[in-house]
Amino acid sequence: MSESVFTYIGAITGHGSMLVVVHLLLVVSIIMMVVLLATKSLKAVPNGSQNILEAYLQGAISMGRDVIGEELARKYLPLVATIGLFVFISNVIGIIPGFESPTSNINVTLPLALLVFFYYNYEGIKKNGFFSYFAHFAGPVKILAPLMFPIEIVSHLSRVISLSFRLFGNIKGDDLFLWVLLMLAPWVAPLPAYILLTFSALLQTFVFMILIYVYLAGAVAIEDDH
Questions:
Q1: Which of 53, 170, 184, 190 has the CA that lies 20 to 30 A from 62?
Q2: What's the pLDDT tens digit per position in 20-61?
Q3: Whether the model pTM is above 0.90
Q4: Total domain count for the chain?
Q5: Within the chain, where are the H helices?
């Protein structure tokens, strides 16, 4: 069905990998433009785009404060905030008729999930040591270690599927929903749906960001028995 839907970029590149790549480049360009506008003339009392971006960063810190603590929330802010900004703009761009959400493609969401997976495990090993980190997978009761260890491994691997398919499935579903509305009633019916789809894009971004903090908390603070 996706190949029958018109996109401005698809009219030039066709429907395939190039369509996704060009949309990704468009998202990155928008992010760079937003960041440049917000930082070109920094002020002690922010206004305009600087105010919006600083509010976003403070919100990301507040989000992580209750999960991982103030210090670690600030430490991992660059990762969480960058991914959050990328996911949100990727989600929202698909709401505009003639464009497609990069996050509606599993080839985009899967690498994002893998990045998070490898990073939080790397941070866990770095903080606790290789053997201490993986020893935690065995659980507190040694006799149950042969059972708990493989369960924990599967549980961590399933996070990749959960992160990637949750985002992909929800945004793809939103795109299909909008496409159907546009075909049935292109001038009236989609108008209320834009509010719902924007809220969905924001919600999926929030879920992705909070899960990064949760996974990092579980990796770097294993002594706290989350």
A1: 170
A2: 899 899 999 999 999 998 888 777 667 778 888 999 999 999
A3: no
A4: 1
A5: 10-13, 17-39, 48-68, 70-75, 77-93, 106-128, 130-135, 145-184, 190-220
